[in-house]
Amino acid sequence: MDEISGKAASDQETQNFVANAVHEIKTPLSIILGYLENLREPATLDDKDLTQSVLGIMDRHVVRINRIVDEMLIISKLETREKNSLDRDLFNIASCARDVIERLEIVTKKQQVDFDIQIPELEIAGNQFYWSQILFNLIENSLKQNPDTAIKIRISAELNSDESFTIRVYDNGIGIPPPDLPFIFKRFYRVKKHHPKNHIKGTGLGLSIVKQAVEAHGGTITVRSIPNVETLFVIVVPHFKGPIEEIAPSA
Q1: What pTM was estimated for this model as a whole?
Q2: How many Cβ atoms sit within 10 Å of the Cβ of residue 52?
Q3: Fewer beta carbons below 10 Å: N end or C end of the chain?
C-alpha cells in the first residue's frame, strides 16, 4: 500500500512539474507571438526605434525560454542518477568558484558586489558541472534578491573532522522572509508573496537544482535568513580522499 501511495505521489509531482513547465514556457511564447504580430504592422516596421524595442523584448523572452529548457534538462539528468551513477572526478573547488564568478561578471558589473572568497586550494571528488551549477545558482540568487543595493557575498569552504567538507554562501542583503523559507527549494517557487521586492525575476528552478545536485553528491543543504540582515546557505558533503577510481558510484 505504501508503495502504491508513493508511486501516486511521484506521479502527481511529475504531472505538477510538467504543468508548471508548460505554463512557464507558454507565457513568454505568447508574448513573443504578440510582438511578432506587431512587427507585421507597417507602422511598426517604419519606426526603427519601435522595431528595435520590440526585438529587444522578444530576445529577452527567448533567452528566458532557453534558460527554462536548460534547467529542465539538468533536473531530468539529476533524476535519472539512480540508473546512471553520477560521473565524478577530482577538481579544484576554489578554481570552480572563481570560474563561476567570472561567468557572472556581466551581471556583477551592473551591481555593487563585494566578493569575499575564503576557499582553500582544495581538490574534491565530484561532478564539476553540477558543482558549478550549485555555486552559480546560489550566487545568482543573491544577486537577483538584491538588484538595487550594494551587497557582500562571501563563499567559504572547510574540511571537517569527520572527513566531510562544508561550503557556505553568505550575503548581507535583503534576506528571505520566514514564511517563504520552507518552500524555496520547491520547483517553480519564487520568493515574492511576502517579499518587498516582488519583481524578482527567475525561472523558479535554480534552488531546486541546487538541492538535487547537493543530494546527488550525498550531501545536505540548509538555509538561514534574517530579513534585511543576511542569508546563509550551508552545504555539507562527504569528502573523499584517495584515487578517483576508488570512488563508489552514487546511490
Answers
A1: 0.72
A2: 10
A3: N
Say if residue 154 is in the same domain as residue 182: yes
Q: Say whether 120 sits in a helix, a strand or coil.
A: coil
Residue type, 244: I
Label the pairing between strands 220-226 and 230-238: antiparallel
Segment-wise mean pLDDT, segments of 10 residues, the chain, 251 residues: 51 60 72 80 78 82 77 74 68 93 82 90 88 93 84 93 92 91 84 52 78 92 94 89 45 39
Which grid coordinates are listed for 46? Answer: 517604419
Q: Which domain holds residue 8?
A: 2-79
If you write DSSP's letter for every residue of 172-220 in order, what string do you get?
Answer: -SS---GGGGGGTTSTT--TTTT-S-TT--S-S-HHHHHHHHHHHTT-E
Report how far apart, in Å, the C-alpha atoms of 77 and of each of 47, 205, 211 are: 45, 14, 14
* C-alpha to C-alpha distance for 83 and 81, rounded to whole angstroms: 5
pLDDT at 3: 52
Q: Identify any residues that bridge with 166 across adjacent strands, giving them in sequence order.
A: 158, 236
Cα(88)–Cα(190) distance, rounded to whole angstroms?
A: 31
Q: What local confidence, expressed as pLDDT, does residue 23 receive?
A: 63
Sign of dihedral through CA atoms 17, 18, 19, 25? positive
Answer whether residue 248 is part of any domain.
Answer: no
Based on DSSP, count helices (H) and strands (E) in the chain, helices before strands: 7, 7
